[in-house]
Amino acid sequence: MVLRDTTVFTLLFILNLEISPGTTDLLTWNGDNTLLNDEVPWRNLSQLSQLERSSRFNLTVIILTMNRPESLRRLLDSIDKTFFEFSEDKLNLEIHVDKSQGWFYDDCVNIAKNYSLPPGRGTVKPKIFSKNHGLRAAWFESWTPNSISDHAIIIEDDLEVSPLWFSWLRRSWLTYRHRTDLAGIALSRQYMVVQKPDRDFEIENDGVPFLYRLVGTWGFSPHPARWVQLLTWFNSLDSETFDPYVPGLITSDWLHIHTRQGRRHMTWEQWHVFHSNKENLFTLYLNLGSREVLVNNWREAGVHSRTSPNQPDYPLLQSCPIQLQEFPAKLRKYNWNAEEILE
C-alpha cells in the first residue's frame, strides 16, 4: 500500500486515536520480506505446533454489546468452552457496552462487570460507555494494535463461537499474517455474493481456506497493519460527505439507504469494502462441507433486523475435522462475483 503522505496520515491517526508510537510502523507495513504471499513459514504440522508455542501471538477478544443480555450470556458461555491446546494459552477479553437505557442495558452492564474467564485463561476488562456512539464507532474505535503480533477478534453479542475457534484462528494467523493481500480472517461462513445481481451463494473450495473480497462481519479478526491503514485512511476523510461507492456492489446501495434513513453512523462495512477494493485486499474464509461453522449468528433483533428467528444460521463445529489442519500455501482467490481470480 502506498500512502500519499505518510507524515500527514500518521499525524492524523495519532490525533484521532491516540495511539502509541509503535503503531506508526504498521502504517507502512507491506510484508515481512522473508516470505512471498504463496509461501508459508512451516513445512509440516509439527513445525506449525512449534510456531504456536514460540511465536508471539497476543489476542484480544472484543465483544460489542448494548441491550441484549441473554445474547451476551450465550456468547460468553460459548467462550467459556473454548478449547486451549497449551497451558499458557490466554485471552485478553474486553466487553464494550454501548450506552442505552432500561433494564436490558443495566443487565448487560452487570454481566460485563461480573464476568470472568475460566481460571488461568486470561483477563476481562469491561468498558462501559457514557454516551451512545453507534455501531460504526463501536467497530472503528474498538481496537488499535501496536505490532504485527497483536491480534484481535471483534464479536457482536448475537454470535456464538465453536470450542475450536481459538486454535484455528491462531494457526491461520501464524500461517498467513505475512501476506500483503490479507485484510483479515473471518470465523463466519462465506454465504453471499454482493456484486449485482446479488444473491446467496457459498464458495465450497473443497472445504479448505480461501480468499474472498468481502469482509466477514461476524467474528472478524482484522490484519493488524491493514486495520491501522484502514482507520488512518478513514480518519483522513470527511465521513459525512465522502461516498465510498464501489460500482456494481449492493453494499454501496445499502450505505445510501442508511444515509437517507439518518443511520449512516450505524454501518461500517462499506468503508472496509471500498478500502479493500482500492488496495486489492481479501478476507480469509473457511466453508466446511459439513456446513458447520466456527461462529454462528442468532440474528437477534437490533440494528440490522427487527425480528429474531430464535435459531442460529448454521450449527457450531464441535469436533475437529481434518480441514482445520489444512492451510494451503497457495490460496485460491475469488472476486466480488465469486468467480475465481486466475493469476
What does this structure look like?
This protein is globular. The protein has helices at 6-17, 24-27, 45-54, 69-80, 103-114, 134-140, 165-176, 224-235, 250-260, 269-279, and strands at residues 58-65, 91-97, 122-128, 150-156, 159-161, 182-186, 192-193, 199-200, 210-212, 220-222, 282-285, 295-297, 333-334, 340-341. The model is unreliable at 1-19 (pLDDT under 50). The longest helix is centred in the N-terminal third of the chain and has 12 residues, at 6-17. The protein is an alpha/beta fold. It has one domain: Spore Coat Polysaccharide Biosynthesis Protein SpsA, Chain A, CATH 3.90.550. Helix content is 30%, strand content 17%. The protein has a six-stranded mixed β-sheet with strand order 10-6-11-9-13-14. Strands 3-2-1-4 form a four-stranded parallel β-sheet.
Q: Count the E strands.
A: 14
CATH topology: Spore Coat Polysaccharide Biosynthesis Protein SpsA, Chain A
CATH class category label: Alpha Beta
- H/E element sequence: HHHEHEHEHEEHEEEEEHHHEEEE
What's the helix count?
10
Largest sheet: 6 strands, mixed
Radius of gyration: 19 Å
Low-confidence stretches: 1-19
Q: Into which percent range does the helicity of residues fall?
A: 25-40%
First-last Cα distance:
20 Å
What fraction of residues sit in β-strands?
Answer: 15-25%
How many structural domains does the protein architecture include? 1
What is the CATH-assigned architecture? Alpha-Beta Complex
- Order of strands, main sheet, comes to 10-6-11-9-13-14
Q: Determine the CATH superfamily.
A: Spore Coat Polysaccharide Biosynthesis Protein SpsA, Chain A
Structural class: alpha/beta
Shape by Cα distribution: globular
Residue-averaged pLDDT, rounded? 91
